[in-house]
Amino acid sequence: MLAQLLASTLRVSTPLIFAALGGMFSERAGVVNIALEGMMLLGAFGAAVGTLVTHSPWLGSACGMGAGILLAALYGLFAIRLRANQIVAGTAINMLALGLTPFLCKILYDVTGSTPPIPIDQRFRTAPLYLSWVLVLVCWVWMKRTPSGLWISFAGEHPEALNAAGIRVNRVRWLAVLISGALAGMGGASLSIFLSSSFSRNMTAGRGFMALAALIFGKWKPVPTAIACLLFGFAEAVQIRLQGVSLLGSKPIPVQFIQILPYLVTILVLAGFVGHSRAPKAAGTPFQRE
Amino acid sequence: MRKLLQPILAVALGLALGLAVTWIAGESPWHVLKILEKGAFGSGYDFGMTLFYTTPLIFTGLSVAVAFHAGLFNIGAEGQLTVGALAAAVVGAVWSGLSAPLAPVVAVLAALLAGTIWGAIPGWLRARRGSHEVINTIMLNFIAAGLTSYVALYLLKNPDSQNPETRPIGPGYLIHQFGIFGGAPVSAALPLAILAAALVWVLLWRTSLGFEIRAVGQSEPAARAAGIDAGRIRIIAMCLAGGLAGLVGVGEVLGNAGKFKVGFSPEFGFIGIAVALLGRNQPAGILAAALLFGALHKGTADLDFETEHVTRELSLILQALVILSVSADGLWSWMKERRRPVIPETAGGVTC
Amino acid sequence: GAEFKVGLVLDRGGKDDKSFNASAYEGAMRAKSKLGIFLKYVEATDDNAFEPLLRAFAQRDFDLIIGIGFAQKEAIKKVADQFPQKHFALVDSIVDSPNVRSLMFEEHEGAYIIGSIAALTSKTGKIGFIGGMDIPLIRRFEMGYTAGAKKINPQITVIANFVGVTGEAWNNPPKGKELAVTQYEGGVDVIFAAAGASGMGVFDAAEEKKKFAIGVDSNQDWTKPGLILTSMLKRIDEAVFTTIQEGQAGKFSGGVKRFGLASRGVDYSFDQYNAKILTEPVRKQADELKAEIIAGKIDVPDYYKKH
Amino acid sequence: MDSSQIVDDTTAAVELRALSKQFGGVRANADVNLRVERGTIHGVIGENGAGKSTAMKILYGIYRPDAGEIFVGGKKCVWASPSDAIAMGIGMVHQHFMLAGPYSALDNILLGAEPVRWGFIERKKARERLESLARQYGLPVEWDRPVEQLPVGIQQRIEILKLLYRHSNILILDEPTSVLTPQETSDLFANLKKLRDEGKTIVIITHKLKEVMSFTDRVTVFRAGKVTGEVETSRTNPQELANLMVGRKVVLSIDVPPARPRPETAIEVQGLSLAGPSGSRHKLSDVSFSVKRGEIVGVAGVEGNGQSELLQALLHPRESRCRTAGPVRYLANDVTVWDAAKIRDLGVAVIPEDRQSEGLLLERPVSENFLLGLQRSDAFSRAGFLRLRNLEKTATLAVEEYDVRPRGLMNTAGQLSGGNQQKLIVAREFQRQPQVLIAAQPTRGVDVGAIEFIHNRIVRARDEGAGVLLVSSELDEILTLADRILVLYEGRVVAEFQRADVSERELGLKMGGG
Ligand SMILES: Nc1ncnc2c1ncn2[C@@H]1O[C@H](COP(=O)(O)OP(=O)(O)OP(=O)(O)O)[C@@H](O)[C@H]1O
Ligand SMILES: Nc1ncnc2c1ncn2[C@@H]1O[C@H](COP(=O)(O)OP(=O)(O)OP(=O)(O)O)[C@@H](O)[C@H]1O
Ligand SMILES: [Mg+2]
Ligand SMILES: [Mg+2]
Fold this sequence. Notes:
The complex is a heterotetramer of chains A (290), B (352), C (307) and D (514). Chain A is mainly alpha-helical and 290 residues long.
């Protein structure tokens, strides 16, 4: 029972971890990433199409990451190069992904909103789950120990300092945003070819925003962020098990109350224990060299 | 002049890009544009539907904008409008005997109050507990959906329908619908929304409170040093934001459905973000942007009818591209840069 | 002399939901190819879009306009009253106008049979139900399903879960899968999914856990051959086809048309994909129950009547 | 490239020729020519907004020039980014430090010059080298502390260590002394001399003529984006430099008539103890003092010794966390549990420590900045509505009177230069007709003309009966203005003097904890 609960928690949190770590790169570099949801969605689509074409989940997830990167590049063009308001551009990117995926489904498969199913032997069984935790470690080492990790941190905290140290701020931001797209794309891939068997319309169902919440919850650091994802996953897994359970032997608790549990927990935990979490100082501010 | 021209050009650019997408899909952009125009403005009824969609977008756009001015990002308009609509419906269903002049006023106040409370929660949490409003408003959207569907399904269920919806409100609650739109549910909610926009403008730019809201949004330390209680202002701003979003319930419940239907909103709350941003958080801009998005929403609904490959999804694509091109502040200076003769070209790096 | 024009307004899930709307679409397409009618279908973006779409069809001189899903009830009522010379049909809800035909399905009867099949097949004495959102229609499925299962095995445990609280609930296969995995791990060995596209997730879980799942609305047996025990058919396709056929022949009539077990409007599926798993004795018992219901010997509980 | 390759001693270390740079409508630099000889300390002076920082930022590759040429060691250079300038041995300490607060001193120094092995930063190796540099120049730093927890003086050390760590040969320092004690200032210049004697070239921007006179070899004067003179320090005098800077005669120090304190107490604090924001090292412990109306009490001290905490306790007594003791009184009201708005309504005016973040809404027009804090005053509001016409009238007059340039009310505050921003704040705060004035670093980084103006205003407020608390790390300022002087050291008041009784040396000693 406990092992199943744990397994369930880990599964549910896998896409969140990928997306949240993706968000971490771009936000630590100073680019707020509301667009995670959209990048995930296009990633899920790309991975499904890629797997259908190549019959390999690995190549498929590469396609998903590619799709995420593509969308991230568009986001970067606006958020970095054209200095658009990042929240505006991010919101637009989400809409674009939401509209574009069914549109492409229609063109590719003449189906509105979903791709054909992917056979079980071409889907992932567990790989993304392990991969996500390896990635947590990699990100932790990356941010702490490598020059590019340091540059990313400074690009978000004090871009002028980074510029004065002779590093091109916007190049670092580009790098971070593209990584962000790749990881969010992988998060989407784990939805379509790991946790289910096809792409379907708006299948991210708000997970990009949950990832964002985990990122804030985890104070923009890889390990705490991953733990926050786990917490959300746990709340979800518990919620599933609580449905239909009756307290005090009487009627079961209305399902709606059970279903809002994870969200309630998040609010309470955030208000009670986490306190202030401070975003990277320059997050949201475009950098321009005069 | 430039200020006005820029967004118009940007909207045009966005539409052009979007229509280019339709061309890729094998439809003539010109044809699609004409369908959109006809779908949104073709008849009194069509225009009425456009206005019907515009109304909630004005409210949610204002909601997002007021929060923005206080430096807060309100992703929670969706939840706020849900509880607002439910409150109006509950009042109307429970005290169904109430009659005309009083009844709608009570219901409007109920919607306002419910939205206000739903906005106050993340406002309070941000101001006093320091937790981020982006997360809390997202969570509250889900919670609102859960609670309202419980009320609609178990407490106030409509016995005459399989729809997840509440009992109908009393006849005294229904507000005036304009006849000139051929039956489209354009109600008194539209003038109410325009009035709200005017009031928000007055509040923000003509009152001390509005100035304090903007000051907190601009720089919390400066506002604090000037003796403004930033926490209090944030709570007030979120209350206002929530109340404005809650008023969406007026048009939907009192002016259209006559009850609360679970899931009635096609994400007005999220489109409201786009409306606020496109309208540059200015009430007048929001009115214009809401009309644009209302028209896109209505216009694209007809695409299915008239084309082979282009579906309603184009609506989202168009909206997204319009927002993107409007958002690109740097686009103009970039284009200028391109035209300017380049002085010592720097690309090569050190040339010693 | 002119071509008979039919407009189809689908619910938000769209024609490719492999389930509810797909069934309606299929019926209409069959009419198109067999009867040579002119068909145009649209998908709504939101609840308030139904009315303009229906109206647009009426204004464009379509002869018969069919709305799929209870959400269109009021829109159909309003538009039908404004265009009394046009013919309308509505699936899943009753509109009391002379020019509207209401196509009602007795889901609870079908679900009852499905419940009995599940109980007969289950070895663990635990079966599951996964619905999209907690709404009356889905509860109607659940109630019939439970009653049918209890009829076979009064001790059986039925675990019911719902995917979510917002419209996303119908489009969240990963969540559907997780719910199903949890149920299977808890000892359930047959799950009936009435959750739109989220049901695909339930089937994925069945595939991974090598357990049974049951489809809904359309025949979904083909999606995972050998794992989908059966599907609860809701023959919207038939209802739509017949309505079009009668309309074209000038025999349209308003009023309520009910499709229950008797008229084979609801049924369970049996084809080459589930022939190996839906065993002879199970089918026999199910068919006996069916006969009893049709004969009025069993009173199947109906959520619509109880709430 | 190792710049020691450059051997020709007759060329200048750096030369700027006909440099021009325009920001929007502002000509920050117009035809600037500047020559810095190898192995000298070269001073650059000029009014606020004269274009000094801009010229140096161009030299360092942060800004691209619109026109003009840069020569380093006689070779023409074009920078694509600061990295090119860094490669040529140029290093810069910026007016506003380029340090990221949450990161360690070590990481801030390493940034962009990380020693790398197998793709990882070798922090240990870097630290060893830095420790030896720190020993060599007497610049110890706690390497692992987040820089935001370090005092400004140390932060500047970190900036200088950055340059040494990168083997910079040409060091540009933009107003390095505005945050230092006299002791630290002379330490800094001792180090700079040492570096010069090792063959490095140093360019230093400052507003302090005294420093220019005592430490530089040559000096270039900027005015309004142009160079108005370049002279050998030994052949000039402060008066001449001041005239070149301002283009008119300036009085170098104002004459302050003695105070006539009134009996009423303006500010009173007793036994105030306070923990600073988490991580800051200094707390207030048992601080007691009072300020009478009609006198100026100066709080001297090196930054980071509790000034910020004191200001926080005075302005937001209710919100100050971890207060352990001590009421705060203004004009005989115990305000310990009051909020800031109520306190301000008593007639308390504040010139905040950090004008950009605490004093202004940088993206809003001047008129709104003038309104900030007065939005509920009778002058500018009635029944909750703003009286915009009144605001415009009053603000126009005030901008005129306080010489805020440019005059337009619609310019954003961020478009004003530092000195003009400060004048705007002063104009606004004096609009309250203060009974109590709390002025924190009122002339930091402000040019001589504006200093004179602001000082006169403060004295006038005193003479009109305000009690003034002047918190400043500029000794000259304290000695010119204050009637009584408190010295704050590590959160305690360690000394109190009458102005007449104290010398600069004595004061400096106390500030350093002596
Ligand atoms: N980033 C910028 N954007 C726009 N204008 C600028 C910018 N930097 C400088 N300026 C303009 O250039 C002028 C010169 O500024 P600069 O910072 O070089 O003056 P300064 O001599 O360093 O003054 P101070 O003594 O106050 O430091 C300013 O008045 C300002 O108007
Ligand atoms: N967006 C902007 N538009 C116009 N001018 C700007 C803008 N941003 C900054 N400036 C100018 O840039 C200058 C910033 O330069 P710098 O950092 O040297 O400040 P400063 O003028 O030296 O201030 P201080 O008085 O603190 O020394 C300001 O003087 C200001 O006039
Ligand atoms: Mg400067
Ligand atoms: Mg300056």
